[in-house]
């Protein structure tokens, strides 16, 4: 926001000089060009910063899943939240249209899974967790469970569970 | 273990990438130059002179950042003329042709390759030689970078990396990452799902409240 105000001030000063230059003082051209360079530079920095933020938010969707933790959402501007929601929607539409593929398969970039069920250990308290056939599992710290893979994948990526190899 | 976050990389050759943060940092580096004609009212911005009404006299020496030099440089050269920083001059070029491996490129301005490519934009009679030197330096240093990045597993690499400039460091890190991935695969950890590094970083960082 501060940068925007600076830009506005510079632009106004530049406008004043442009009008002065038009009235015949041609040696001020350098000054105008200089200010124009500064404005362009500021614009470039701002754009690059915002674009980088967008790239990181997009990465968050692939890492975290559809719901962002509150602390992160607090740091995002309103437009970024809206961008995130729209990106989520496009991604969901795309995943549906590819014929019933789960979104997580797209982010799974390592070897195909070796088994349907995996052994996990809980790293922190999470509460209750329900599996497809209705049984609930209480996730407390250091408890080990044998759970279906697709259910716990998201929790593992978030750091709540830990995958154990036998 | 590929990451989902792919930042915009630096540009190759004569043009920079507009949105690349690396390129923006690189174009912040300063160039020595000279003002060809008197620049009215610019004195306060460039650090000389007392008030806003002073002008910089002709032929005075200036240190300007690259982005400003590119903007103010004109083919008729009415405003600014740029000189080469000393690392691209004759003396250093002979050092590079003798042995490029001993030079501490990080100390000499951490963007040797990128900055050199941008310098070729300004008309300069020595351009072909500069281009040749940059290329030759890169070729001779590359072998050592590749060697060290592929063989330093689980060690402290700060000694190796200290003398490299930014482009070389990026290459080194790519090599390290490939090595780590391969070792993971060998150990059988490739099919283990892990929490991504983004998640781990967010967990460790404490979020402070922003002011309004």
UniProtKB/TrEMBL annotation, chain A:
CC per GO annotation: GINS complex
UniProt entry keywords in alphabetical sequence: Chromosome, DNA replication, Nucleus
Cellular compartments annotated: Chromosome; Nucleus
SUPFAM superfamilies referenced in this protein's UniProt entry, alphabetically: GINS helical bundle-like (SSF158573)
The DNA replication complex GINS protein PSF1 C-terminal domain, residue ranges: 114-165
InterPro entries: GINS_A, GINS_bundle-like_dom_sf, GINS_Psf1, PSF1_C
Family, as annotated: Belongs to the GINS1/PSF1 family.
Protein name, UniProt field: DNA replication complex GINS protein PSF1
Protein source organism: Nyctibius bracteatus (Rufous potoo)
UniProtKB/TrEMBL annotation, chain B:
Family: Belongs to the GINS3/PSF3 family.
Lineage: Eukaryota, Metazoa, Chordata, Craniata, Vertebrata
Pfam family, any one: PSF3_N
InterPro entries according to UniProt: GINS_A, GINS_bundle-like_dom_sf, GINS_Psf3, GINS_Psf3_sf, PSF3_N
The protein's name in its UniProt record: DNA replication complex GINS protein PSF3
Domain GINS subunit span(s) in chain numbering: 89-185
Main location: nucleus
GO biological process: mitotic DNA replication initiation
Job of this protein: Required for correct functioning of the GINS complex, a complex that plays an essential role in the initiation of DNA replication, and progression of DNA replication forks. GINS complex is a core component of CDC45-MCM-GINS (CMG) helicase, the molecular machine that unwinds template DNA during replication, and around which the replisome is built.
């Amino acid at each position: 926001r501060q940068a925007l105000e600076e830009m506005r001030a510079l632009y106004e000063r530049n406008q004043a000089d442009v009008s002065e230059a038009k009235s015949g003082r041609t040696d001020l051209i350098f000054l105008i060009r200089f200010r124009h360079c500064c404005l362009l530079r500021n614009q470039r920095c701002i754009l690059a910063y915002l674009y980088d933020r967008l790239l990181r938010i997009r990465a968050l969707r692939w890492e975290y899943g559809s719901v962002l933790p509150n602390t992160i959402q607090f740091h995002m501007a309103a437009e970024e939240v809206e961008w995130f929601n729209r990106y989520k929607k496009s991604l969901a539409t795309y995943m549906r249209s590819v014929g019933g593929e789960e979104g997580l398969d797209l982010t799974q970039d390592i070897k195909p899974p070796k088994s349907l069920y995996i052994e996990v250990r809980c790293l922190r308290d999470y509460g209750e967790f329900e599996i497809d056939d209705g049984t609930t599992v209480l996730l407390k710290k250091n408890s080990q469970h044998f759970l279906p893979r697709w259910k716990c994948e998201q929790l593992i990526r978030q750091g709540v569970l830990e995958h154990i190899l036998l | 273990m590929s990451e989902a976050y792919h930042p915009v990389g630096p540009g190759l050759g004569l043009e920079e990438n507009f949105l690349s943060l690396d390129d923006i940092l690189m174009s912040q580096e300063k160039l020595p130059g000279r003002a060809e004609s008197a620049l009215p009212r610019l004195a306060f911005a460039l650090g000389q002179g007392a008030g806003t009404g002073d002008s910089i006299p002709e032929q005075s020496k200036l240190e300007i950042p690259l982005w400003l030099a590119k903007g103010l440089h004109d083919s008729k050269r009415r405003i600014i003329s740029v000189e080469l920083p000393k690392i691209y001059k004759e003396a250093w070029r002979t050092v590079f042709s003798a042995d490029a491996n001993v030079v501490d490129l990080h100390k000499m301005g951490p963007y040797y390759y990128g900055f050199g490519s941008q310098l070729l934009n300004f008309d300069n009679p020595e351009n072909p030689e500069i281009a040749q030197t940059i290329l030759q330096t890169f070729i001779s240093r590359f072998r050592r970078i590749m060697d060290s990045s592929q063989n330093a597993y689980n060690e402290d690499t700060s000694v190796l990396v200290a003398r490299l400039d930014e482009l070389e460091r990026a290459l080194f890190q790519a090599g390290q990452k490939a090595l780590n991935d391969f070792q993971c695969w060998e150990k059988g950890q490739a099919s283990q799902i892990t929490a991504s590094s983004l998640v781990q970083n967010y967990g460790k960082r404490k979020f402070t409240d922003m002011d309004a």
